[in-house]
Amino acid sequence: MGLLDSFEKGLERAVNGAFAKTFRSGIQPVEIASALRSELDKKAAVVARDRILAPNTFTVRLAPSDDERMQAIGQPLVDELADLVAKHSRAQGYTFAGPVSVTIRRDDALSTGTLQVDSSTAQGSVSWRGVLDIAGQRHPLVKARTVIGRGSDADITLADAGTSRRHVEVLWDGERAMVRDLGSTNGTLLNGRKISESPLPPDATITIGRTDMVFRIVAQASAPARPAASDATRAFDMFDGGGRA
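Above: the chain's sequence. Below: its structure in token form.
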């Protein structure tokens, strides 16, 4: 099932059949979904480290009559549109620089049956953050040197008897990363290969004891400004396309 097919089925659950008949003239909800998808593809750009950065704030501008009908549906429509953005971004491997927001807004300059989508990346400079994904939890590397192990004095403590108290450390300078075994009893694997010290590329897996840790580099930026309270909006955090985002 395609994304637009999925969107239409979700919309059917949000809008009753009698109301849906009013869309026989003017903008159809699926046309908004298609426009958002096109905007994502058009504005997505490779920025660094093989990351494709896509816009994360969207304003859908509609003619007064179309806006009135869409606002009557309210939050269910906006929720479906925001979910579509998330699903399409995950499918394409796009990354967001901050929280995603979708807003529907009236534009008196537009005629019935036409729409305009404006998009942008969250204001603020994009920076790259190193993180470790461990057992479904994300641990930001907030220090230049992060020690992982079983001991309570480790920066990240693991409940894994197969690890040493101070088993391994990850070095991160904001651009590059390294992993270094700290003389552990059972050793350290990087992508299945035993190492004592090695550069740490994005999406590599570090294994100590029975624990797998995936190193990732994700984009971050300040959140976009919130829209006016009168606009239908959905905002949510999805900093890495699906990866969380």
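The CA atoms of residues 150 and 165 lie 4 Å apart.
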